[in-house]
Write a sequence for this structure.
């Protein structure tokens, strides 16, 4: 089954074409085409993602990225098409709020034939709603013209499944059969949550942040230290310098909710503690490195402790860590070194580096499994939901 996937939840515009097949020991995935464009430079001057600017950039980027992904997959074939007037009108209505996207897409659709795909998957949430709507409406337009079924994908499910992929060779991956129950620690700029998968693709929310997401906290602390956006990589870079230098750290930070009777997180107090320590001070480079180290270690301690608590509460046999913050080298090291000693029965999966951030490959994975279950979306009922949840918390 070949899935064309579209991702526009935040500040990455991405389109991928992925083929999934049943294989011995799991499901085999081949990346036929993959195109991604980051908006980091566009948003850097704002110190974060500006939603309406992200929306505009997605509308500008989608058609060129679609062409690039199809060309890489050898599916961009010249074949002049006549678009019926009623279809053209419906497409124009779908994309009327997306700048010149309708015109650019119609020009492409008239020039090239229908690609050899089975379905179109699109991120419908969570994320920034203005950005999500661009991708959702684009997917609807393609489905309308190409007569392909639609699949509504939860962005966080994509992150979780991407963590399970094992690279076999270039552009070829295996998603192995996974021991259940599985825990997903999903950590990104907008989310910090632990979900439990007891049955395949069935989720229960075990814990979540009560305030800031961990990636958001990284960015806010980076701004306090006058570091450029995005803050996470900058904090990690300085923290590694402090580790290499060694010596006592003059900064001590709290571990919020570390011993509380829940699997929930709180990073607001940690962020505030940094603020009080740096307020009205001009930190030199060494002090910035020490503060970055103190902050990163506090975050890692909380993430690990809460995840271990969730493992012990659920009896999980597998742990997958997904989302942009899963790229953090120190957090990966903490889990990779401590979990085998504390819980040797639990397998650990962390995404390969290029799948840690937002991408369309992970949306294709989720789309494939949802399509195999016959879970296709009605175009009229497919909406963008910025607060879409992956699992519900049981009372």
């Amino acid at each position: 089954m070949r899935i064309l996937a579209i991702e526009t939840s935040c500040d990455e515009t991405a389109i991928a074409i992925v083929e999934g097949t049943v294989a011995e020991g799991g499901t085999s995935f081949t990346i036929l085409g993959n195109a991604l464009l980051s908006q980091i430079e566009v948003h850097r001057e704002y110190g974060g993602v500006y939603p309406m600017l992200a929306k505009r950039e997605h509308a500008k980027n989608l058609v060129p990225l679609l062409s690039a992904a199809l060309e890489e997959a050898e599916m961009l074939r010249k074949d002049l098409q006549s678009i019926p007037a009623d279809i053209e009108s419906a497409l124009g209505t779908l994309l009327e709020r997306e700048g010149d996207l309708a015109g650019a897409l119609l020009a492409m659709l008239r020039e090239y034939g229908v690609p050899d795909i089975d379905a179109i998957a699109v991120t419908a949430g969570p994320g920034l709603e203005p950005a999500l709507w661009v991708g959702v409406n684009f997917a609807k337009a393609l489905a309308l013209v190409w007569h392909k079924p639609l699949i509504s994908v939860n962005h966080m499910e994509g992150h979780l499944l991407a963590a399970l992929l094992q690279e076999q060779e270039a552009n070829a991956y295996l998603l192995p059969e996974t021991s259940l129950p599985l825990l997903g620690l999903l950590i990104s700029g907008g989310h910090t949550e632990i979900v439990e998968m007891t049955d395949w693709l069935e989720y229960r929310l075990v814990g979540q942040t009560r305030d800031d997401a961990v990636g958001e906290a990284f960015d806010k602390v980076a701004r306090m230290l006058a570091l450029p956006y995005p803050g996470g990589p900058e904090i990690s870079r300085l923290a590694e310098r402090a580790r290499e230098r060694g010596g006592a750290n003059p900064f001590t930070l709290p571990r919020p909710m570390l011993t509380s009777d829940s699997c929930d997180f709180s990073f607001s107090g940690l962020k505030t503690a940094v603020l009080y320590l740096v307020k009205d001070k001009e930190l030199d480079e060494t002090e910035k490195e020490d503060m970055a180290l103190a902050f990163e270690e506090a975050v890692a301690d909380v993430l690990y402790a809460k995840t271990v608590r969730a493992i012990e509460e659920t009896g999980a046999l597998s742990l997958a860590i997904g989302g942009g913050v899963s790229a953090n080298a120190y957090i990966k090291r903490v889990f990779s070194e401590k979990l085998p000693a504390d819980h040797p029965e639990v397998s650990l999966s962390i995404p390969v580096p290029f799948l840690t951030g937002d991408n369309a490959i992970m949306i294709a994975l989720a789309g494939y499994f949802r399509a195999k279950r016959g879970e296709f979306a009605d175009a009229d009922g497919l909406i963008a939901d910025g607060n879409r949840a992956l699992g519900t918390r049981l009372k």
About this structure: The mean pLDDT is 94. The CA atoms of residues 166 and 174 lie 5 Å apart. The chain is about 45% helix and 20% strand.
